[in-house]
Amino acid sequence: METDRSAGAEGPALAEEIAEYYGRDGEDGRLRSGAGRLELWRTQDVLRRLLPPAPARVLDVGGGSGVHAQWLAADGYAVELVDPVPLHVERAARLPGVTARHGDARALEAPDASMDVVLLLGPLYHLPEREDRVRALTEARRVLRPGGLVVAATINRYVPLYDNLSTGLYFEAERRPQIEAAVGDGRMRPTGGPKSLFTTAYFHEPDEVPAEFSAAGLTPHGQYGVEGAAWLMGGVRDWLDDPSRRELVLRALRRTESVPSLLGVGGHLLTAGARPR
């Protein structure tokens, strides 16, 4: 029998270094400007094709400051956001149509079978232990109604290599060990100080994610590359600034988003699944 975690349940603690990283308040701006808009708009593009019609109930787990919750609410969805970073919750709570609360993906307070959709667009790649990722997905299944949709974002395994080759940081000898270690076992270990590239994270191989869904009792039914190869192309910022070119970029990426051989090329991958009826 599944447990109903009522309000007030105390979830696991967020790792200190992750809390510090997101406490800098850089994530909201990253997705709303520059090349980060490609991740935002492509995630939006995929979700708008997968989600049931509004006003379905959406639980945005690890939803940050509400970048996705904002447009979901504007589209008419009933959106509840959960995030472990107090600053994020404070900002998201100001958004029209969004209810925001503090919480952890591994111990949700929502009642059993209370949601039509659960989004995990950030939590899985900050849980380096598979047991914790499966626990988060199991919680998503618990709060979903039978037949409900779950969509999870993961970061692809070779992102540290591609990204830092693109920026040139890979050529700095003191940074290469952190990059190569992450590519080797998928674990980003922060080194502390200004030379650290990211906070604690796990980078998936694409085929790992459906297996984690299945271990949590979810039925995976699709994977969608978010940025494809476009994020590594030098002109992407300019293309996104031009509405006509932006639409062509999105259309091109849509054509190849689920080609198996290309799933690991982009920065992020969306995996969709359902709670069995």
UniProtKB/TrEMBL annotation:
Residues 58-148 form the Methyltransferase domain. It comes from the Bacteria. SUPFAM superfamilies: S-adenosyl-L-methionine-dependent methyltransferases. Pfam families: Methyltransf_25. Coiled coil: none annotated. InterPro entries: Methyltransf_25, SAM-dependent_MTases_sf. GO terms for molecular function: methyltransferase activity. GO terms for biological process: methylation. Keywords: Methyltransferase, S-adenosyl-L-methionine, Transferase. CDD domains: AdoMet_MTases. This is SAM-dependent methyltransferase. It comes from Streptomyces griseochromogenes.
